[in-house]
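[audit] Reproducing an earlier prediction to check determinism. Same input, same settings, fresh worker. If the tokens differ from the archived copy the diff job will pick it up downstream; this log only records the rerun itself.
[audit] input (256 residues):
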Amino acid sequence: MTRLHIVGCPRSGTSLLLELLATCFENDGHCAHELSLFDPPPIHSGLYISKQPTDIRRLRTVFPRDERLHILYISRDPRAVVTSMHAEHPGLYFCNYRVWKDCQLAAGNYRGHPRFHSLRYEDLVTHPDAAQDELASRFPFLRKRHAFRDFHEHAVTDKAALRAMNGLRPISTDDLQGWRRHLPRLAQQLQRWPGMARDIVALGYEPDDSWWTGLDGVRPREFPCRYPDSRPVLREWETTLRTWWRSRRYLRQIKA
């Protein structure tokens, strides 16, 4: 079995990407919404497509050793990530710069690997068919059956995925500047994490710091967020230990 696993920072477009791949490329199965890399798929042959965003931070032991595993990482402008809300949790921001940066650093460990590919959310929604051709070229086992631009006409989407995507609709660039509606939240994140401004320019989301003028007079405000700005050391230690055990089990399974 070949497995294509989607990862990325939460609120970077992983749900949309899963639906696009499952709808528009031939496959033998895909997860309904999320399935950890460490959970075995329900099929044993063919192509299986799955996603679990934060698995990007848990690949180090298993990815290099499983030649059937392919990883697709989607990245997004951190301003959009830190100001994104989930339809199930109105009034609650879902992610922050700390988590976004951790995912970016983790992805950097695999750039250039033949079974790893990185895709920008902005490129996906601006030029969906070009992005589809890029993926088909990068992963030769993908066989096209519908165009990305038409996926909403063919998708049969899980309710959890619909909520994560805030509804089923045609691919659009309408939300690329949505962060401008959340300037107090953005100002707080920039105040807490000054390095975010450097990343925005370094990654080409802005040519320089002139976009900062839009924050003149904006007072930073604290808002509820699913992920705390302070690193939860004990929880991360527990996750690291659990990942170590699950990685050992995974490697035993692929050798069986």
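[audit] rerun output stored. Observation attached for the diff report: The chain has a mean pLDDT of 93.
[audit] end
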